[in-house]
Specification:
alpha+beta; 43% helix; 3 helices; Arc Repressor Mutant, subunit A; globular; 63 residues; single chain
């Protein structure tokens, strides 16, 4: 079902070189889609890519 594991907030923050609080704010503001398991949030790689594409300053070359 899941082809790739879900990322933790720490992993997302590490990948993007931002603080975990920034990632939490994106989730809270509904900018970044996430799934809550108990007290922990997880982000799919597909949702992270969609978030990055939505916040890019210009369209990709193949569009």
């Amino acid at each position: 079902m899941l082809s790739q594991p879900l990322l933790t907030l720490h992993e997302v923050a590490d990948l993007l070189k931002v603080k975990e609080a920034t990632v939490r704010a994106w989730i809270h503001d509904a900018d970044l889609r996430a799934i809550k398991f108990g007290r922990e949030w997880r982000v799919s790689q597909k949702d992270l890519e969609a978030f990055l594409n939505a916040h890019a300053n210009k369209p990709a070359a193949d569009e």
